[in-house]
Amino acid sequence: MVSTKFYTAIYVVLFVSATVQVLVEFAGLAYWTAFGIIMVLSAAKAVLVAAYFQHLRWEPRSLTYLVGIGLVAALALTVAASYSLL
Amino acid sequence: MSDTDPERTDGGTEVGSEVVAGGHEDDHDHGHDFPGTGSIKRWFVTTNHKDVGILYIVTSLFFLVLGGVLAWLMRIQLWAPRAPGETILAPVAYNQAVSAHGLLMVFWFLSPFAFGFANYIVPLQLGAKDLAFPRLNALSYWLYLFSGILFGVSFFQGGTFSGGWTMYAPLNVPTFTPDVGASTAVLALVLFVASVTVSSVNFLTTMHRMRAEGLTLRNMPLFSWTILLTVWMMLFAFAALLAALMVLSADRLLGTTYFAMESPAGALLWTHLFWFFGHPEVYIVFFPALGVMAEVFQTFTGRRIVGRKWFIIAMVLVAIQSFVVWMHHMFLTSINLQVKTLFMITTIGISLPFDLMVFALIYTMLKGKIRFTTPFLFVFGALLLFIIGGITGVFLGAVVLDYEFRGTYWVVAHFHYVMVGGVTALVGGLYYWFPKITGRMYDEFLGKVHFAAYFVGFNLLYFPLFVAWETPRRVFDYAPELAPWHQLATIGGFVLGLSFLIMFYNLFKSAFTGDPVSDNPWEYATTAEWAVSSPPPLENFEGTPTYRDGHLSFILDRESDVTGGATAADGSGGATAGGGVATSPHTAVTTEYEPTVEATEVEGPSHASIWPFVLSLGAFLILLGISPLQDAAFPEGMMGAAYATTAVAGFGVTLGSLIAMGLEPFHGPVFDEGEAWPFSGIDNGKVGMWIFLASDVVLFGGFLGAYIFTRFAFGWTGWQPVPDDPIPGLVNTYILLTSSFTVVLALVAAEKKHKLGLVTSLGATFVLGIGFLVNKALEWQHLFHEGLWLSTNVRTSTFFLTTGLHAAHVIAGLIIALYLTARAWRGAYLEDNRSVEYFGLYWHFVDIVWLFLFPLFYIL
User: Fold this and answer.
1) Which of B151, B382, B545, B756 is least enclosed, having the fewest CB within 10 Å?
2) Measured between alpha carbons, how far is residue A52 from residues A14, B692, B740, B843 in Å?
3) Nearest to B694 among A35, A49, A70 (CB)
4) Percent residues over pLDDT 90 in chain B
């Protein structure tokens, strides 16, 4: 495993990017631009937590795929259901 | 979730009992607490998979009778078309009978019946001594039983749910179904889904991690294959149903307005959530029946199934495709034509693998030599019925035809041919495994009489419904010229129902007085359950089963191979004629055995715990207690107080039994890792935790999907976040991120065996979690004073309910954190820190969810 210092660095990155998300909102960008930036930041934070805090990076890849399947199912439902309204 | 990981919670405790892998020295809990099968106590404490299997089978048959009696009531009513004033059952009572019949049969009979066999047979087929988490297995059963009792209670609370088994919105909200019993029925389903989720995690961990050496997935028997695919589908599909049911419960009890008529696309939201679950559910119900068909076909044709590999591939395809066909149940809703067309195509696509399976079964019969025993008759009948059910379903999959058929008896007839066709195979399975379970043979003549009556009754009941297809579904008034067909169906219904009396008599009598059977009463049965005695010993096998030489043999603990009997159980070299019949090993996995080991008293795992029962009782009381809530308030007076007291008592019982379960010394089955693809080298507890989290992803996905869908229907950018200030949310993000960090520090401290660091970090996590909740409470209070609450509009409903679900996860995590802190204070987790690690996985997941809730509900 890795050192406490490394975990601290991850924590700082997470902390800062959460702040950035709110700053983006207050920056007065176009709605969908801000939307894109904020969601990408959220996804990036989620990947960091899963990869390092949940140490998926050092686990067999099958566990990552397992969670990925759940994610794909949830996204398929959301996207297809929303599309069906168009 | 360390509480759901009972086998691991006691590593390195102050008691000083270390769980050593394969540690036979830990015997202080073994044996003396485990009464024999004749004792009533046994059945309340047992965690053994075979006992649990029997409990499932018996309980599910009880629900078959209950659902069947409701069906009889409907068929009596349908003897003649009736106007509302001249009915036998009052109109609403009829609606209740229709709804309860559907719900009971689909949820409380069909799947649990199949899972009785799965519990009993699958560990034997895998070469495992029990499921991975035996207490969780008992918990699944007790949650199932209590959910059924809760459903039963709903009849006496002004009437049960009456809006059909699909529970379509907006009929499912109190405006249209105001009885308390209707809420209770929904809560009973919630409890049932909890049982299913626990069961899915347990089976998936077991089936992936605990197969005997050499038993690769490719070689796994077909019944086990069908169960494996079933539990995978269950894991994700039931999580979506749980989301739907929790939202519905909130609408009914707390006053949220997701499905209210004035909410944008509320009715459509329900159909999406329900059918995303509902279509995989068709295969969840049918696959075990398919597995029984495959096993019984192989045994009684003496022939390995034709195209075994392709049969498996076809099943895997169906399991995946089942998640992309759900909108064919929605062709008459307002979804757009493009998506209807797309789902018509995927629906036709899913019928193709089934064609392959049907032809494989037919061809197996042609190539084999059939013996017409009772089990074979039932599965053969099931195949015929399924072919009819499948073909009539293709009509419904076509958009244009569905416009005509939707809401008619064509649908009713179609899905009864499929579903009850599946039941037919499972009844065959009951006869097939009866000698294994009881050690005695049933009466073959009475079995055949049962089949004849059953098959005639079935077709007399359901086939006329195709002819009378213009009858409107769920309605007791119909065109008078259709009456003769309905009268035929009613007669068939009684023949079908009464035929079960023959079975009950036969099996009950034979269980006590039938001829005793050997290990394997069926010639050519090749799967491993037939390699052990009937019934099998408590821990299934003497020695460790292995397939490393291409057949089943057993290794004694003293490392001496005890078998190698040359006589193959599959009868290869047997005398039966017929082209290629039984002259070669049937499957890659043939069983060869000669039990040479005398039964010795081996010290081993635990088999008894009362806490699954008590925990389920507690959950039952909570849900019963909250059932009369409306707009988050109990009714006035004594009644309301009694309900509230019940809920509080239930909460106490649940919490107490969770802690007791965590502290109880309990040792899961000892096993040497054999085949464990794709999770080899990962601890059972960790695999179980990740599987649970994957289902939780879908649960939150359902909630977030409901929010996104509703907001999309409302008009995305016209929808403002409920809190006007994102800063409290940002503060909570900071708090939660910090608490994740402290959990990481806790694990680091545990790895360094640093007790103070561990306690401090866990304690800090707890304090931060409390801080998160306090901050949230202040924010909610503020919003409440602004006049915004759950029931204000759908915008506030989604905000409070989704963040509320997350808060509930935080609270559950805090209870575990408190438990861990207390244990760590007393010196636990320094030797074995897995509990801390698994708690961390859960806690980080809750953190990740918040990372998405925060922008979606506070910023955007």
Assistant:
1) B756
2) 12, 20, 11, 13
3) A70
4) 87
What pLDDT digit, counting tens, does each position of B291-310 carry? 999 999 999 999 999 999 99
Compute the nearest-CA separation of B660 from chain A (Å): 28
**Are the CB atoms for B335 and A85 separated by under 8 Å?**
yes
In a domain? residue B382: no
Q: Which residue has the tokens 């599987």?
A: B691
Residue B352, in any domain of the structure: no
Reported ipTM: 0.98
CATH at residue B651: 1.20.120.80
Query: Which pTM was predicted?
Result: 0.92
pLDDT by residue (tens digit) across A22-57? 999 899 899 999 999 999 999 999 999 999 999 999
| Residue in the block written with tokens 């077991």 | B206
Write the DSSP assignment of B26-82 as a string of letters. Answer: --TTSSTT---TTSHHHHHHB--HHHHHHHHHHHHHHHHHHHHHHHHHHHHHTTS--
Give every CB contact of residue B609 below 8 A, 6+ residues apart in sequence.
B45, B47, B135, B138, B661, B664, B666
Residue B44 lies in a domain: no
Q: Which domain covers residue B752, as residue numbers?
A: 610-664+714-859
Query: Amino acid identity, residue A22?
Result: V
Per DSSP, helices labelled H in B127-265 are: 134-154, 180-209, 222-249
Phi and psi at residue B257, in whole multiples of 5°?
-125, 30
Point out the residue among A39, A59, A62 whose CB comes nearest to the CB of B855: A39
Please tell me the predicted confidence (pLDDT) of residue B671: 82
| B620-642: average pLDDT | 96
CB contact under 8 A, B701 and A19: no
When scoring A6, A7, A20, A85 by the number of chain B Cβ atoms within 10 A, the one with the most, hence best to mutate, is A85
B621/B84 Cα distance (integer angstroms): 37
Mean pLDDT of B779-805: 96
Residue B794: inside a domain: yes
- Structural domain total, chain B: 1
Angle at the Cα of B55 from the Cα atoms of B50 and B61, rounded to 5 degrees: 125
